[in-house]
Description:
The structure is a single chain. With 162 residues, this protein is an alpha+beta fold. The chain is 16% helix and 35% strand. It has 2 helices and 11 strands; from the N terminus they run H-E-E-E-E-E-E-E-H-E-E-E-E. The strands form 2 sheets. Strands 2, 3, 4, 5, 6, 8, 9, 10 and 11 form a 9-stranded antiparallel beta sheet that branches. A hairpin with a 5-residue loop joins strand 10 (144-149) and strand 11. The longest helix is centred in the N-terminal third of the chain and has 15 residues, at 21-35. The chain is globular, with a radius of gyration of 16 Å. The termini are far apart.
Amino acid sequence: MTIPSLTPSTKQPVREKLLTPDGIRAMLRVVKPVIGTSKVIGMSVHETHASLDVPLKRDKKVYNTYDYRDGQVDEPRIGGQVRTSPADLDTFNWDRLPALFKRADKDLGVPKPTSRYIIVDTDYAFTSVNPVLLVYVSDDYHRTGYLVASPQGKVLKLIRNE
């Protein structure tokens, strides 16, 4: 049986903007039926693509990686061993993303960011909260920083890497 979202499309790809509440939710609506869950051990999301590490149903000790781009989910790649508890993406307050990026732009010492992305980290070592959302900004001069937020969007830590 062919999964519809894995079938090649003849339509022109639409450049998505995933780093918005609506963009994340739209991506998850496509991804969740393919991966069969809302639980991941990691996820990174850039403006036009995302990658999700998902424990296997038949063996929760290992995971596969699924890539999402242009409204499509690629066939999974072999990931590795699971060393942490999964995060439920349905528990994250994606409505807080704009405020988190605004705070990152203001407080991380990157005056004109040219790159932004987020990571759902299920084993972040520098806070007592897990999972966390890491919100990254950087510029063409390698000034970068990230903030650490709870799944509800509360800022826990700011890391400047100038």
